[in-house]
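Journal club prep — side note

Before the paper discussion, L.F. wants everyone to see what a predicted structure for a comparable chain looks like in token form. Sequence:
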Amino acid sequence: MGILKRFERAVEAEAIARGHSAAFAEREQLAPVTNIGEAQLHVPFSIRIPAGLGSPTVIAATPRDGVKDAARAATVVFRYEDPSLGRLTVMEQGGDDVVTIRGGIPAHVLPSPNGVMVRWIENGVAFTVIGTSHSREDVFAAVEKI
């Protein structure tokens, strides 16, 4: 099994472990790239190169031609194998935008094939709200009720 497939299964397993159905697990379509420069060609945001982690064993990015709206769903993944840290995956993901919710808290909005996902941290608690078959405004209204 390839490294990207294992990554996809790990993301799905994590979603299930957190109580989400497998249908809620985001499945990124990532393509291996040979270096950071090539990855930068696939994403519209400036990649932050992880410092102090050595050289990644895998770099993968969302292919430009395979994503409906590449600017909104762009992702780059770095996989490291470190003797002291073990396997470490760093994912940088572009989003629709950053908005202010709940009286001034910044939140990251991500579209998905299933709807809209909003992520934020409030009082030390990380929240993720996934709205399927809902408009963006409906999801924001739900976020304000939490």
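L.F.'s comment for the group: The first helix runs from residue 3 to 17. Keep this in mind when we get to the figures.
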